[in-house]
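Below is a typical protein record.
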Amino acid sequence: TFKHNLTAVLNGAELPYSNGCLEGFNRKIKQIERTAFGYSSFTNLLTRIRLEENLYKEKEPNSLLMVA
């Protein structure tokens, strides 16, 4: 299989690109799945992942309420 994937191996060694960030994110998701045993729905699991990664954005204050 090394000969079959030789170009991919050489590209991985020569190019400055890395998938380390993506692999780390996948690892976090798998860990959350392990610790989240018993969630009642997939939506709850997605919510937990978003909370762990701070993907929820805080709502901006209503500009109409901020007028003095």
